[in-house]
Amino acid sequence: MSVQEYLDKHMLSRKIEDAVNAAVRAKTPDPVLFISNHMKKGVSSVITKVKARQILDSRGIPTVEVELYTNKGVFRASVPCGDSTGMYEAVELRDGDKGTYLGTAVTKAVKNINEKISEALVGMDPTVQLQIDQAMIDLDKTEKKSELGANAILAVSIAACRAGAAEKEVPLYKHIADLSGKTNTILPVPAFTVISGGKHSGNSLPVQDIMILPTGAVRFEEALQMGSETYHHLKAVITEKYGANGCNVGEDGGFVPDISRQVLPLCLTILVFHIIDQRTLPLTPVREGLDIVREAIGRTGYNDKIKIGIGVAATEFCIDYPIASIEDPFDKEDWEHSKRFCGLGLCQVVGDDLLMSNPKRIERAIHESACNSLLLKINQIGTVTEAVDVVKMAKEAHWGVVVSQRFGETNDCFIADLAVALGAGQIKAGAPCRGERVAKYNQLLRIEQELGDQAVYAGEDWRL
């Protein structure tokens, strides 16, 4: 084939002429670079390679990282890991060899990506997220992604999502919003963990965490400032009451003061406590924790602008404190009491272990009114597409949505873009402390700045 025949076959003369004309119109100081980029934009992107490796999460436990290649670049994603897994969530594939990372290595999941998933996805358009995710689901062939591993599938799904955004030349949150059919984006209210308890802390606080929600802020930037200032005032309060050792932090950055060891009433007594005179109730570890958080909020001067959330608690706290949100007040199989508690209408009742981001359990909870908010943990479901779908389900039921971290986190800030894109209204990414937690909040700052006058902070409408 002659040079001219080659040029004619691929219409290169016309394409080069168009690129040169564009460079002239742009008056670019670097025409070669401009023409190169212009030509590159004219080529539809496809996935050319998917490569995975084992890295460590914030606890020093292995997790999966993926690099997905297209002719537009390389796109990286890493997945979070839960401290515990439930029978209703997608399976996190681990090797189980006790001689390597105490059985937590993920080389099987990595191998599945490098040898099976990569082969299935090469040549696909990265903008078609649904087809990419469905291809992996079909390849796995199990209900809970136990063959390939949800950790393998999710890492690729997120990386592909980033590649799709790059191909469309839009921010990640805008691409996800397009995938979900949303036309508006919302900066979520952050639920900052300020005190950690339960098995993640080593103290006597029987609930998992106490959080603050700056619902009275006007912008996310202001909300982050409120959270940070309150966190540091709380550090001072804890130092005064418990000593400097009380300012050690848990896995998600919350302080772990040595809360008193008095017995917390069982959650099953919630339905009785709400009718008792609150002054007759004894001091409990949770009440003690709430008191020091309230004192810290008082020192900031943000009293009317910050609400409190707790992982597990009793009804009386909603009356004496500005409790706006409670996660899993009962056991994950106690549907009856969850329904009755939600029916009291005291605050947002978030389904975490009750739901496990599982569509069937969400559907049941909606039908039985067992809670009124979804805690979305994307690794419990396994793909971007399925995460979008369950959020739609929750929103259609007029539920709140909290996009959540896991205790084993990485510096990947995908959930920040996801929360904005889906208009979740709430994000739980831990304390305003520790790099893997702050990474999410810093990304939200960037998004707000990028949106400029179009930025909307959920604020008082955090549950809508």
Automatic annotation (TrEMBL):
Q: Which GO terms describe its biological process?
A: glycolytic process
Under Pfam families, the record lists:
Enolase_C, Enolase_N
**What is any one of the record's Gene Ontology cellular component terms?**
phosphopyruvate hydratase complex
Q: Which residues form the Enolase N-terminal domain?
A: 47-176
Q: Identify which top EC class this enzyme belongs to.
A: lyase
Organism's domain of life? Eukaryota
User: Per UniProt, where does Mg(2+) bind?
Assistant: E327, D352
**EC number assigned by the record:** 4.2.1.11
Please name the catalytic residues of this protein. Answer: D252 (proton donor), K377 (proton acceptor)
Q: Name one GO molecular function term.
A: magnesium ion binding
How is the cofactor bound, in the record's words?
Mg(2+) is required for catalysis and for stabilizing the dimer.
The text of the family note is: Belongs to the enolase family.
Q: Which PANTHER family match?
A: CYTOSOLIC ENOLASE 3, ENOLASE
Name used for this protein in its record:
phosphopyruvate hydratase
> What organism does this protein naturally occur in?
Gossypium gossypioides
